[in-house]
Amino acid sequence: MQRANFVKVAAAAATALWLVGCTTTGGESTSDVSTMEPVVKEEVIVETQPVLDPSVQAVVDSGKISATPEQIGALLNHNEYQFGFDSSRLEDRDYKALDVQAAYLNSSEGRNKQIVIEGHTDERGTRTYNLALGERRASAVKNYLVSKGVAEGRIEVISFGFEKPLDPAHNDSAWTKNRRAVIVMN
């Protein structure tokens, strides 16, 4: 009986030793931290910048405009300036857009551009009066750009008077839309 118990204990001890042996590899203990290779994880951070439209980049590079690239892009696309009834005075809101236009036209990107400024009126008034008023509106835009350093010889002014309405309707809403100066770049 004692011998049978001894055999059971010896078998259990041999099984335990065998199990311990299975947890090691190549005779080395896996619990020995000093022999393990350190695991290095590198994190690569790639910064990307969106590609800007060259005209927007030219204005940003000029350093003359403090605005985001999105704002500059929107202001560069703003090429139409509205006027009050019988007025050729620019509105305060127009100056920022014209500053951006001037920065672009004075940059290396826009230096070779020629522009035409078209002056328009609503349908009220005589043809002669409206042609003169359209010219004054286009000239107001031109004079501001020239004051910002754009060469006068690069700017052509054309008055269409009321001949090319934006809205052909005969009401206040249409007349408001038609009183404008438009910059066309070539």
Q: What does it look like?
A:
It contains six helices and four strands; from the N terminus they run αααβαβαβαβ. It has 186 residues and is α+β, with helices and mostly antiparallel strands. A four-stranded mixed beta sheet has the order 1-4-2-3. Helix 2 packs across helix 3 and helix 4 crosses helix 5.
Topology (SSEs and partners):
Elements: H1 2-22, H2 54-62, H3 69-77, E1 80-82, H4 94-105, E2 115-120, H5 127-147, E3 155-161, H6 172-178, E4 180-185
Parallel strand pairs: 2-3
Antiparallel strand pairs: 1-4, 2-4
Helix pairs in contact: 2-3, 2-4, 4-5
Number of separate helices: 6
Biggest sheet details:
4 strands, mixed
First-to-last CA distance: 111 Å
The largest sheet has its strands arranged as 1-4-2-3
Q: Please give the radius of gyration in angstroms.
A: 39 Å
Number of strands: 4
What is the beta-strand fraction? 5-15%
What are the low-pLDDT stretches, counting only 5+ consecutive residues below 50? none
Q: What is the global morphology?
A: elongated
Helix/strand/pairing class, anyone?
alpha+beta
Query: What proportion of the residues is helical, as a percent range?
Result: 40-55%
The secondary-structure element order is HHHEHEHEHE
- Whole-number mean pLDDT: 87
